[in-house]
């Protein structure tokens, strides 16, 4: 396994459409393993393949808290089937380092994807997981949260100050 370089906003690869994965190969498996290692190393909750420069429809997510057991989720060729409700809150992205912003997302999302055995399965998420599913799947279509942020991008310090004021 290896930590891969995370592409940052401004890199044109982040705005490209990703291609579906047709079959599991040692290369794809290595990519998934590296994506987890890269995400955990950067303390992220999700990472999409274009963020490491690969235009494939692959997402990894782990929303477990630092005190909890890891909860790794692999989504190959994911597709949002259903969303419900709304949540407005702080969001960040490993490709937009040192910044965060306020984004409204569904409160619930239901996603169909393939696992590492290329078997279809369903992931349902609420709150942080719903936000992560929508954010990461957006990456596969070349979209960053900065396109839908409400107000300015902030540093985490500015966001904490603003939260105290309200
Ligand atoms: Ni992101």
How would you briefly describe this protein structure?
This protein is an alpha+beta fold and 166 residues long.
Any overview of this molecule?
The protein is of the alpha+beta class. It is 24% helix and 30% strand. It has three helices and eight strands; from the N terminus they run H-E-E-E-E-E-E-E-H-E-H. Strands 1-2-3-6-7 form a five-stranded antiparallel β-sheet, with helices on both faces. Strands 4-5-8 form a three-stranded antiparallel β-sheet. Strand 4 and strand 5 form a beta hairpin. The longest helix is centred in the first third of the chain and has 16 residues. The protein is globular. It starts with 25 loop residues before the first helix and ends with a helix. The model has no long low-confidence stretch (mean pLDDT 96).
Topology, pairings included?
Blueprint: H1 26-41, E1 46-48, E2 58-61, E3 73-84, E4 87-91, E5 100-105, E6 108-114, E7 120-126, H2 127-140, E8 150-154, H3 156-165
Antiparallel strand pairs: 1-2, 2-3, 3-6, 4-5, 5-8, 6-7
Bound molecules: nickel (II) ion.
How far is it from the N-terminal to the C-terminal residue, by CA?
Answer: 44 Å
Query: For the largest beta sheet, what order do the strands appear in spatially?
Result: 1-2-3-6-7
Number of helices: 3
Low-confidence regions: none
Percentage of residues in helical conformation: 10-25%
What is the structural class?
Answer: alpha+beta
Let me know the largest β-sheet: 5 strands, antiparallel
Oligomer state of the chains in this structure: single chain
Gyration radius from CA atoms, angstroms:
15 Å
Strand-residue proportion: 25-35%
Shape: globular
Mean pLDDT: 96
List the ions, cofactors and other small molecules found in this model.
Answer: nickel (II) ion
């Amino acid at each position: 396994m290896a930590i891969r370089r995370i592409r940052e906003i401004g890199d044109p690869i982040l705005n490209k459409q990703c291609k579906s994965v047709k079959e599991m190969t040692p290369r794809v498996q290595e990519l998934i393993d590296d994506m987890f290692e890269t995400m955990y190393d950067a303390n992220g909750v999700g990472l999409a393949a274009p963020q490491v420069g690969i235009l494939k429809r692959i997402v990894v997510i782990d929303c477990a808290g630092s005190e909890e057991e890891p909860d790794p989720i692999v989504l190959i060729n994911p597709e949002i089937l259903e969303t419900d409700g709304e949540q407005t809150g702080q969001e960040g992205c490993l490709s937009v380092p040192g910044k965060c912003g306020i984004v409204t997302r569904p409160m619930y999302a239901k996603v169909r994807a393939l696992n590492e055995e290329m078997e279809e399965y369903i992931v349902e998420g609420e709150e942080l997981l719903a936000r992560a599913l929508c954010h990461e799947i957006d990456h596969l279509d070349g979209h960053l949260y900065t396109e839908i942020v409400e107000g300015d991008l902030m540093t985490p310090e500015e966001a904490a100050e603003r939260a105290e004021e309200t």
